[in-house]
Design a protein that fits this description.
By secondary structure, this protein is α/β, with parallel strands linked by helices. It folds into two domains: 17-95 and 338-351, no CATH class; 105-334, Alpha/Beta hydrolase fold, catalytic domain (Rossmann fold), CATH 3.40.50.1820. Helix content is 27%, strand content 21%. The chain has helices at residues 30-43, 136-147, 190-213, 229-240, 286-300, 321-334, 340-343; strands at residues 17-18, 26-27, 58-67, 70-79, 88-90, 112-115, 124-129, 152-157, 161-162, 171-172, 222-227, 247-251, 272-278, 305-310, 349-351. The strands form five sheets. The chain has a seven-stranded mixed beta sheet with strand order 6-8-7-11-12-13-14, sandwiched between helices. Helix 3 crosses helix 4 (229-240). It starts with 16 loop residues before the first strand and ends with a strand.
Length: 352
């Protein structure tokens, strides 16, 4: 007979391991286990030892709290006074609170496409920024769907300016070509950073703030994902937008040269940065990429920045397990998770 594997406590996928101490809580990966350890270590009782009782000095109780529309489960130790009986209130899961309000089209001049999380729980928000000459559909909208990150809504934002003379419409975040010669513009051309500072950055700050105020996504639950020129814009927003975002995934992109020596809006940033660079990238050598990394470490803090050089990857999206696995592990460690299975259990109570 085949046996069904218990679900992972964090993400509910089939488990492959369990806590080595209590041997009760199961996980699908070491990443999920590490993410849950701050909560689990409070309640973990080594197998074979008795669990805390009401006669103990303290009792370990799982409580579910709500803060501005998001719900999280935490474990706390509550002192027991025998003269004062505990009041237990059943915790009820309210599915109507799982989906957050969609951002309004009037919130920005930029075109965007919002999608609720595919599992129906909008706990995190991941914002996508396409590269030079691309557009949000179909490539990035499809990418957002194919990632299928748990409890994560997505927004794909289109750059504000059309690339001139393209047969098929493509968009750019800042002027990129000399319209007379067709050559790429370098950092010495002031119109690049001028458009970013006067148009792109203010519009994006306004939109993200709208997602915080109107759609009720906490800043610490918002992540950015950018490719090439879009990665430059994502990093610019995280560095100079003044909003304490959760993290940024940058594929083949670094800070704009014009901004490398600017001071960040948040001196002590907690934003986590993952930069992925292919060793076959024909636009930037590995040596140049390592030099660019120093500017990110100065702006965001060395402890917050991780660079991954992927073997065989060119100037494009990851195309192998060597590229996708660390990317998904970064998401697993960075995105917030609600223990929905626990919230729906009939025997979960809030202690008052």
């Amino acid at each position: 007979m085949s046996s069904t594997k218990p679900p992972c406590f964090v993400c509910a996928t089939p488990s492959i391991t369990r806590c080595s101490q209590c041997k009760v809580i199961h996980y699908c990966s070491s990443a999920c286990q590490r993410k849950d350890w701050p909560r689990h270590k409070v309640a973990c009782t080594p197998a074979g030892k008795p669990s805390p009782t009401l006669e103990s000095a303290t009792t370990t109780t799982t409580t579910t709290t709500s803060n501005k529309g998001s719900t999280s489960s935490t474990s706390t130790k509550i002192p027991v006074d025998p003269s004062k009986p505990l009041k237990l209130t059943p915790v009820e899961h309210d599915p109507s609170s799982d989906l957050k309000p969609e951002p309004l089209a009037s919130s920005t001049k930029l075109k965007f496409k919002f999608e609720h999380s595919q599992d129906g729980i909008d706990l995190n928000l991941l914002i996508f920024f396409h590269g030079l000459g691309d557009k949000i559909e179909p490539n990035f909208v499809q990418l957002a769907k194919s990632l299928n990150l748990p409890q994560t809504a997505t927004v794909c934002i289109q750059a504000p300016t059309a690339v001139p003379f393209l047969e098929e419409a493509g968009w750019q975040w800042f002027p990129s070509f000399n319209i007379m010669t067709g050559e790429l513009l370098g950092p010495e051309h002031k119109e690049r950073i001028t458009q970013v500072k006067q148009v792109v950055r203010p519009e994006l700050v306004k939109f993200v703030q709208h997602c915080i105020d109107h759609s009720k996504f906490p800043a610490n639950n918002i992540m950015l994902f950018g490719f090439s020129q879009g990665a430059q814009i994502a990093l610019d927003l995280a560095a100079f937008g003044g909003i304490p975002l959760r993290g940024v995934v940058s594929i083949a992109g670094y800070m704009m040269e014009e901004s490398e020596n600017e001071e960040p809006a948040n001196k002590k940033s907690m934003t986590k940065i993952l930069v992925m660079q292919g060793d076959k990238d024909d636009l930037r050598s590995v040596k140049d990429a390592k030099e660019k990394l120093k500017h990110l470490e100065r702006i965001f803090g060395k402890a917050n920045v991780q660079q991954l050089i992927v073997d065989g990857m060119g100037h494009g999206m990851p195309n192998s397990e060597a590229g996708w696995r660390p990317l998904m592990e970064f998401f697993a460690m960075s995105l917030h998770h609600r223990a929905i299975a626990m919230e729906k259990m009939a025997d979960v109570y809030e202690v008052k």
